[in-house]
Design brief:
This protein is an alpha+beta fold and 561 residues long. The chain has four domains: 58 residues, no CATH class; 94 residues, Phosphorylase Kinase, domain 1 (2-Layer Sandwich), CATH 3.30.200.20; 199 residues, Transferase(Phosphotransferase) domain 1 (Transferase(Phosphotransferase), domain 1), CATH 1.10.510; 172 residues, no CATH class. The chain is 53% helix and 11% strand. The protein has a six-stranded antiparallel β-sheet with strand order 1-2-3-4-6-5, with helices on one face. A three-stranded antiparallel β-sheet has the order 7-9-10. A hairpin with a 4-residue loop joins strand 9 and strand 10. Helix 10 packs antiparallel against helix 13, helix 18 packs antiparallel against helix 19 and helix 20 runs antiparallel to helix 21. The longest helix is centred in the C-terminal third of the chain and has 33 residues. It starts with 19 loop residues before the first helix and ends with a strand.
Length: 561
């Protein structure tokens, strides 16, 4: 298409173009209308041009509208999400369903109470939140939820009745549960052990039924478990369900799918090909843990921290958070949360059976856990404390062994062993503080400072006795690198600063007794500490930056990694 453009009029470089004022007024008005979501303003109206004081702008109308027809902009051709939701709030019906009010909303959908105009039956009607702005993946997942739930018939599973599209809005209808979800109930605190066992036994039976139909839910969490007025649980939201025979996930390798606080280690690592019914068993254990303690078993300051805990850590023992939790129920919960799928319950049905045995006050069927496995759990649960105790214990054994083979001063030997004992006690105290969420962050800083101060004290005492401890100063950069395991950039720099100050203090204390060491070595070693701290903190910063990027790319249910 050839568009006739107005000829350029002569004007000096500093003189404003005669069309400028009218042009900018017109375009400003047009852009403001588009930003307000006025679809009637998508093409410039001839009346707008006629209203301008310069009738020659009418030739511009043909130009802009022709460009609009040639290259429509998707972002401007569709209303924003807020406008779609606003239009839904103004709707009184959708197809043959009368909308009675909003029930709730999640990462992808909004659920309304609706009534079928012909049957006069109330149902829950779910609509994609972004509506006609929905991506092809969102629409596919929405219809996947309908397909996964269609044909299921179990007293603990929400049934889907209808799926369709009306005026560009994709919707499905399902059973209406009069009540709330488990997440809302948990806001008031943990449940009793007996009530938790009975409720999760019902949920586990419903999940086992899904597994017998070839479906893995993959997003079990309290918000997806509905409770009616009698407390009967119902499993809902199959938007992330995986059908065993489906090829849909072949392209999703390396994609983390689910909610980090409740997902299994195989989901957290992005290994979608190995996600099995045992992944849902892990999620059931995470929900049971929250029912017993009032908090999720794995929960970090951000999704990256949470995923690392799921992959590498062990949850705090439920009995440490709630003394009313019986040991048998704690054992059931921890068996579900095993890192290796082979160590979990073999099925959700087996889990339900043990929960029912507990509720009936019968012995559970779990075999006892070996001592080796208990130690492995302890190491993963409190790695900082165990590593400290092992290092301090090894140092104590070496010092005590030296006292056996050589003659040592009893006073100096006792002082060193006393400092090591204080160090072990301080580590245990800091770990106990870290179990309390409100003290955890402060405890990390205090613990880091204690490590540096006690190491410096030991080195100072040893030097004053004439022992050469130059090689032991490697403990400072080691502490800097260990601080990175908590993924806190500020903590790394704090540890770097404490180590530098400790080393400088140690240098000045011994500069007179060791004059043979060149003075500029102080600046070299200090620079090395700072460089180590900078490198380690930058690597952690990069990980956290990637975490924020992937959070923005995620859709609330899955994070691309």
């Amino acid at each position: 298409m050839i568009v006739d453009m107005p000829h350029k009029q002569s004007a000096s470089a500093d003189e404003p173009h005669p069309l400028d004022d009218g042009l900018f007024d017109l375009l400003d008005k047009h852009v403001e209308a588009l930003q307000a979501g006025d679809q009637t303003a998508r093409t410039l109206d001839v009346q707008d041009v006629a209203a301008t004081p310069k009738p020659q702008l009418s030739r511009l109308l043909d130009c802009l509208n022709a460009l609009e027809r040639l290259a429509p902009v998707r972002g401007l051709s569709q209303p924003p999400v807020a406008q779609v939701e606003s239009s839904m709030s103004r709707r009184q019906s959708l197809g043959q369903y009368q909308l009675l009010g909003e029930i709730g909303r999640g990462g992808m959908g909004v659920v309304y109470r609706a009534r079928h105009s012909g049957l006069h039956a109330d149902v829950a009607l779910k609509v994609i939140r972004s509506s006609d702005l929905a991506s092809a993946e969102e629409v596919r997942r929405f219809h996947q939820e309908a397909r996964a739930a269609a044909g299921l018939s179990h007293p603990g599973i929400i049934r889907v009745h209808d799926v369709g599209e009306c005026d560009g809005l994709h919707y499905l209808t399902m059973d209406l549960v009069e009540g709330s979800n488990l997440a809302s109930v948990l806001r008031s605190g943990p449940m009793s052990p007996e009530q938790s066992a009975l409720l999760m036994a019902g949920v586990a039976r419903a999940v086992h039924y899904l597994h017998t139909r070839g479906i893995v839910h993959r997003d079990l969490k309290p918000a997806n478990i509905l409770l009616d007025q009698s407390g009967q649980p119902y499993v809902s939201d199959f938007g992330l369900a995986k059908v065993f025979a489906s090829e849909d996930d072949a392209t999703l390798s390396g994609t983390i799918i689910g909610t980090p606080d409740y997902m299994s280690p195989e989901q957290a690592s992005g290994r979608t090909s190995v996600v099995t019914p045992l992944s849902d068993v892990f999620s059931l254990g995470a929900i049971l843990y929250e029912l017993l303690t009032g908090q999720a078993p794995f929960h970090g300051a951000n999704p990256l921290d949470t995923l690392l805990q799921v992959l590498e850590g062990e949850p705090t023992l439920p009995r440490k958070l709630n003394r009313r939790v019986p040991s048998d129920l704690q054992q059931i919960c921890l068996r579900c949360l095993e890192k290796s799928p082979e160590r979990r319950y073999p099925s959700a049905e087996a889990l339900a059976a043990d929960l029912q045995r507990f509720a009936d006050r019968e012995p559970i069927a779990l075999p006892p856990v070996s001592l080796k496995h208990r130690l492995r759990r302890l190491l993963r649960r409190e790695p900082a404390l165990i590593s400290h105790l092992l290092a301090i214990g090894l140092a104590g054994v070496i010092v005590q062994g030296r006292a056996f083979v050589t003659t040592v001063d009893p006073q100096s030997h006792g002082l060193v062993m006393g400092i090591l004992a204080v160090w072990a006690l301080a580590s245990w105290t800091m770990q106990s503080w870290m179990r309390r969420e409100r003290f955890a962050d402060a405890a990390r800083y205090v613990w880091s400072a204690i490590d540096a101060v006690l190491l410096t004290t030991l080195l100072h005492i040893s030097e004053s006795w004439g022992w050469r401890t130059d090689v032991l100063t490697v403990g400072y950069p080691l502490m800097i690198t260990v601080a990175a395991l908590w993924f806190r950039v500020r903590l790394i720099w704090f540890m770097t600063a404490v180590c530098v100050l400790s080393y400088v203090a140690l240098w000045f204390l011994h500069s007179k007794t060791s004059p043979e060491v060149p003075g500029h070595f102080l600046f070299i070693v200090t620079a090395i500490f700072v460089i180590i701290g900078a490198n380690v903190s930058y690597q952690v910063y990069r990980f956290k930056l990637l975490d924020r990027v992937y959070q923005r790319r995620g859709d609330g249910n899955g994070v691309k990694v």
